[in-house]
Amino acid sequence: xxxxxxxxxxxxxxxxxxxxxxxxxxxxxxxxxxxxxxxxxxxxxxxxxxxxxxxxxxxxxxxxxxxxxxxxxxxxxxxxxxxxxxxxxxxxxxxxxxxxxxxxxxxxxxxxxxxxxxxxxxxxxxxxxxxxxxxxxxxxxxxxxxxxxxxxxxxxxxxxxxxxxxxxxxxxxxxxxxxxxxxxxxxxxxxxxxxxxxxxxxxxxxxxxxxxxxxxxxxxxxxxxxxxxxxxxxxxxxxxxxxxxxxxxxxxxxxxxxxxxxxxxxxxxxxxxxxxxxxxxxxxxxxxxxxxxxxxxxxxxxxxxxxxxxxxxxxxxxxxxxxxxxxxxxxxxxxxxxxxxxxxxxxxxxxxx
Amino acid sequence: xxxxxxxxxxxxxxxxxxxxxxxxxxxxxxxxxxxxxxxxxxxxxxxxxxxxxxxxxxxxxxxxxxxxxxxxxxxxxxxxxxxxxxxxxxxxxxxxxxxxxxxxxxxxxxxxxxxxxxxxxxxxx
Lengths: 353, 125
Known about the structure:
- The structure holds 2 protein chains of 2 kinds.
- Chain A is about 15% helix and about 35% strand.
- Chain A has 6 helices and 19 strands.
- By secondary structure, chain B is of the alpha+beta class.
- In chain B, about 40% of the residues are buried.
- The chains are: A alpha+beta, B alpha+beta.
């Protein structure tokens, strides 16, 4: 067990390698109830969220979800989150576990108009069933899900239990995130594993979650970005809709876009055994140009992969760089992101390095 | 097979005359998680007691390996180059790491099974 944002979570149930392959080849089941779940409600909720977040909430229809940044006035990222529009005036906002209290304070401070904000994290559990076969491997007593679009969701049943079924995830694979009443979630968890086991379904821990999200180049708050990083630097400029009207951070972000970001998040790979760890120096032309933000060994790709924040606008794909590994400079090569494109129907992040 | 003995840094040794086989313990491999790479010395290298002789890279972290005895490396487990996961699946068997020719005496502070168990229970919580 490891501490993750104040929650005790299993690094692995069996083996990170086996769980990682289960997610890529069949499906893996993650307990992601550590993530914060807020409900925003009221006639003023759409206007409130539109002002709070960088993405365009006006374009979000009921039954759909959108990935967005929540920024400070200076453009630094308070958190990255997913907003689910349940009805015209009711939203669920899923935030990072470690930021739950900080986000609640920030969101309360900026609360305006006829909108109410409540933390529903305890009564509502969240599990993720992710993999190319997740759809086919939902247990008996589950609603039809084939026609739920990517980043769409709807109320239904999983293993006979009322669930909000969302076609979203953090692995690059097709699959679902399921919102289920906490007193019922155990039944769904057990049913998915019991029925999926012969097809290779495994419960998957934080290790597999980190490896799969990194292969898909999905950013992790606290590693790849924080309050000192703006969305353009993090390669998430596509979540900033400057044309939508006023929102917190718009002025600063417009200036960054105008001038171009001064640093950027890049992806690179290294030789087997040279695992770049968080914080390791990235070297180019004999000079330190940045640091690793996330790195791991990708069992699926067969070599280590990493994201790094570099203090220059960009490096071309194929550029030879070096990274500090065990006190020496290990050769590395800049590669296109994502490192791996899974079965998710459309990419969360556009291909951009 | 002689008795297995342990260090506080989670290596194990089995002594057969002057030959000492070295590996990491089952507790160590379970704490490290999936091992993906080992950086190991060449045969012939002389190691002092508690000298760092290599690194185990797991998914989680890189960890130094320390020589439990003083001696000369006579063999390195080549299988680990291709199958580093043997350290996880069979830490006391096919996952052995080095063989050393012992120089001098065994250090007096090697632990028996019961004493090592106390070390792991203390560090587990």
